[in-house]
Write a structure and sequence with these properties.
The chain starts with a helix and ends with a helix. It is an all-alpha fold. The chain is built from 8 helices and no strands. α4 packs parallel to α6. The protein is globular and about 55 Å long.
Length: 232
Amino acid sequence: MSSAKALATRSIEAVTGAWLLLVAPLTVCAAAGGTLAEYLPSGAAYTTLVCSYCLAGAGVPLTCCVVVLYMHRIAIYKLPAHDAILTAFIPLGPVAQIGVAALTLGLWLGPVLFSLGVVTGLLSWGSTLFWAMHAVFAVAYQRRSGCVPFNISWWALTFPVGVFATLTAGLGDVLELNFFRVCFLLLVGLLVVLWLFNIARTVAGLWTGAIFDIPGLMATYDSDTSCAASSV
């Protein structure tokens, strides 16, 4: 009962890109099903595709709903705190994953619906580019007004950039455009740099213990604890 009351006190100002991590697995599994179906027997492939479309039907609307909530938050309120600003990159992953799922699942639906999958992939790529620009400007703004410390939220950069690279590679193969192929190489290079940087800083943070210092998370935890205690 106290947990329900604590959740009821949530406001739109508490929404961050991290909320998308709750719905991202749906579209990730849908895209993976379209890829795995190619290597499965016909019966298993059919079942996998049916399940993948069901997952996409659940994941795409939920992703759009959370993205709208996050857009509302940053438009009406303010950006996430300095220690959580890297979560601004998380929307890249689920939004790009919609395009990846559309490309992989569209392969099994004939030329007309495959073309629709390509168009969806292009729309998803453009939306992902917008969220990438927003995240870069958000981090730059917070960096200008204060320090952006390294913490575990920096690992939020790897998944979105990786999915963006996967979508870009898929569009490059389908459309045979060098633009997407060059963008894919740039994204892969960026992803490698991010992995190496995060590994190095995480190891250093584990040694000093700084990696476990997440003020924004602790503030949320303390708020929930005090709210739950007051309702008992």
